[in-house]
Every structure is written in C-alpha cells, then in structure tokens.
Amino acid sequence: MAEKVEAIQGLKSQDRSIADEVQQAVREKKPLTIRRIITNEYFLNIVSMIAFLLVWHYAAASGAFSGALCTPWQVVEQFRNLMTDTLAGLTIWGHIWASTQRIFIGFVLASLVAIPLGLFMALNPYVDAIVKPVFDIFKPMPPIAWISIAILWFGIGEPSKIFIIVIGTFVPCLLNAYNGIRLIDPEMYDVIKVLGGRRRNEIIQVSFPASFPAIFAGLQISLSSAWTCVLAAELVASRSGLGFIIVQGMKISDTSMVIGGMIIIAIVAWLTSLLVMGLEKLLCPWKRGIGDL
Amino acid sequence: MDSAAINPEDRPTKIDVKSLTKRFGDLLVLNDISFNVAQGEFLAIVGPTGCGKTTFLNCLSKLMPTSAGDIFVDGEVADPKKHNISFVFQEPTCLPWRTVRRNVAYGMEIKRYPKEKINQRVDYMLDLVGLTDTQDLYPNQVSASMVQRITVARAFAMDPDLLLMDEPYGQLDIKLRYYLEDELIKLWQTLKSTVIFVTHNIEEAVYVAERVLVLSNKPTKIKAEVKVDLPRPRKLIDPEFVALRKQVTDLIQWW
Known about the structure:
The complex is a heterodimer of chains A (293) and B (255).
Chain A: H1 2-27, H2 34-38, H3 41-61, H4 72-84, H5 92-123, H6 125-138, H7 147-154, H8 158-182, H9 186-194, H10 199-236, H11 242-251, H12 255-283
Helix pairs in contact in A: 4-12, 5-6, 5-8, 5-10, 5-11, 7-8, 8-10, 10-11, 10-12, 11-12
Chain B: H1 2-5, E1 13-24, E2 27-38, E3 42-46, H2 53-60, E4 68-73, E5 76-77, E6 85-88, H3 100-110, H4 115-129, H5 144-157, E7 162-166, H6 174-191, E8 195-199, H7 202-208, E9 211-215, E10 222-227, H8 239-253
Parallel strand pairs in B: 3-8, 3-9, 6-7, 7-8
Antiparallel strand pairs in B: 1-2, 1-4, 4-5, 9-10
Helix pairs in contact in B: 3-4, 3-5, 4-5, 5-6, 7-8
C-alpha cells in the first residue's frame, strides 16, 4: 500500500499546480525564427487584411464594376468629409448617435418586457399556457415585415423605428430567457428540495442565476437583430441615422458614401456588442476561465 | 475514533426505515425494506446495477413519495423541512455561480442558520477538507476532485441528521477515490454524522463502512447484512478485508 500513500501525498500539491502549469506552457518563450513569424496568428491576420484591401483597390481601379466601386482610399476621404460637413443638418457623429439612440431605446424597452415575461412563462405553466399560443403566431414573422404597418400606425418619425426594433429584439430575448430556465439540470433543484427549501429558494438561488448566461446570449442575438431593424427602418423613411447615409449615397451615386456607411455600421454594431459582453462579464463573474485567475 | 469504537448496536437508533415499499404502476421496485441506522453509524449499501439504488435513495431523502412504509428520524416521520437531510449526488451539484466558500455555506443558508454560525462553520469545514486556499474561486476553476469535495463539505457542514451519498466518487479515477475515501472517513470520525453510503463498488463499501447492507435484484429487498469490524485505517490486502470483500461479492452474485 506504499504506492497508495505516495499517490495520496502527491495529490494535494498536484491539485493546486494544474492551473499554473497550463499558464506556464502558454507563456514559455521560444526563439524567434522565420517559421514562427509566418505562422504567427497576428501576422497572418495582417497579411489577410492587406491582401483584402489590395484586391479591393485593384478591382476598383480597373473599373470592373463600371465605376460603381470606389477605392479604399476614397472611403477614408469620405469619412473625413462626413466628419466636418453636414448631411441633412448632422455630421457623421450626429447620424451615429441617431441610430444608436434608437437601438438603445428599443432594445431596453423590449428586454425589460421580454425577459421577465420569458422567465415568468418558464416558471409558471399557466402564464405559459396563456402567452405561448399568441407568441407562437408572432414568432416566425420577420420583424421587417412590420415596417409598413409601423409607418401607418406611428408615421415616419421616431416611434415607428423604435417599434420595429422592439419587435425585432423581443422574440430572441423572450426565447432565451424561457429556454435558459427550461434547460436547468433538475439536480440543481434536488439539492434544495432535499434541504427542505421552498419554491422561492429554488427560483432565487437556482433559476435566476442559471438563466443569466442564456439571457445574455439572447441579448447578443437581439442586438444584431436590432441593427438589422434600425437600418431597414432608416432605409425606408428617415432624415437621420446610418441607414439614411447609405440611401443618400445611393441617390447621388456616391459609392464611397454607401460603403463608408456600411463600415461605420459594422464598427458601431461591434462596439455595442462589446458593451453587452462587458455587462455579462460584470454580472456573471463565474464564467471566468482558468486563464483569468 | 470514539464513536467508531463503540459497537453500533450499543448506540441509540437514529434512523428507522419501516417496510419501505415503492411501486411504479405494476412494477414493484422496493419490496418491504426495513432496517435501522444507529446514531453516528457509517452504513454502506451495495447491490447489483439496476436494483433500484437510486429509487431507494430518492425515497429515503423524501424526493420521491413512497408507496408504503416510511422513514423515521429520532422516532418522527422524516420531513426535509424539519430534519437535516443532506444528499451528495452522483454528479457534482455545485452551483457554478457561487464561489467555493458560498457553495459550502449554501445548505446552511437555505436552512437559515444565523450568519455568524455559517461563517464559523464554513471556515471550519474548508479547513477540514483543505479548500481554504481556493475558497474564493468558482467551481469551474478548480479540479474535479475539489468540486466533489465541495459538495461533501456542504453536506457535512449542516451537521445532518442523515447524510445520504449516492456513489459520490463513482466518476473519479482510483487514485483520487482512495484519497477522498480516506478524507470522508476522517470527516465522519471528526463530525460523527450518520451516513448512508450507496455504491456498487464492493471494495469501497467494505473499506469505508461499519456495516454493509446487500440488496437483492428487483424487486429489491435486503438480502444480507455484513458487519465490517476491522480496525482503521483498513488495508486492502489484509486477509480479513479480502475475506469480507469476497463474502459481499458472493452475496451479490447469488441471486
């Protein structure tokens, strides 16, 4: 049994060092060779970006798109113009703010209603039985299909755009909150039941925290849906926002304005999703991996 | 060691299981099972796979209603709201959103122990199972053996009337299992809890328990009772240990 004792003594120190070993292996320095530079992830990222810009530039310069494609440099120039010149009374910052504001209002309104409703449906079978059939009718409808009715109801002002965003973000928010609770491992509840805990304990101690990650996944999906919706609404009828810039560019046949608008949307949408991610990190600290130790 | 030194028969009865029967429709799973567990006794229950061990535990812990018969704690019908019944499940059931420390405190929080008592008790338990250094980490940041140690510490922390364990180490490799079995015995000797340990590993049962109940195939009855009166720490190659292990193994094979 000497082996067993030895094994046991070795264990305690092993348990603690597993995380350190992983980190060390990652950080270990190797000599710099050409092979290492070429296979370096960041190096390859840069090569791919440069290649993309070059292909774009030559495609535009060759006139293959019959002049309807600008060069990357023209887009940069356009950015500079938009920053100082105004378009419908607003600089580029004003238009970015117009779209972001709509997203923010719609997104907050939808999640404030959809998340609690989804949680309620998952926790209470009666609420589920009442809400589910109506929700199932609206679920498969693409949010953009609502644009016409939104304009008829609310006109072409802000309310109709926010309405579209609410419609577009509502479904993924609700579904994820609902599934987040439905998919909890029943043994998590058994622990509380054995201890003689009440239903209230189960909901507060298990249901809510366990559904957090799913809710945040829903918020991310909602956010990208919100950007689709706000653009669609702005493309149809608007005097401000990033969708308006794209439409304006199309009307005056200025591709640099169209592409510039597209790039800004990508950047702003990415920034807003970082914001949601940051919020998740703040509220779900247990999702840290071993690397964050 | 003192509680282990006294013969289980001389200790007062803590748990009294009386003609426990469970049916699912026409299927009789548990057939009139009766036995006692003494105060502070370590009882192991072994049985062939599919003999209804999980159903048995679910009935004992009151997660599942029984068809007939009942479980008595100190002469009263067992009630999770009144009695402290702890359960260590086969799968680790740590709450991922609570730190190691708060996971250990979890059971006591549900039972609404006063804050000071919880803190004191958690400090003591963390020290006993060697988790003090990792108390502020989350379960996904510690190793698998530590996760099961958290749930064991949580179960013992409540000073349970009855501690049920459902193959808690079934999924660990043999090295860790040996280590955690020894730790479990140490905890039991220190805290003097009443433990029912269910497993299909005969060696494990004979290694940890004072008494082993052998279950029959379905419909499940108690087939035999084997007293394990060996000094601790027990040795797996001790001839007496081997003889007992063989005795239990033969009992299980003979159905």
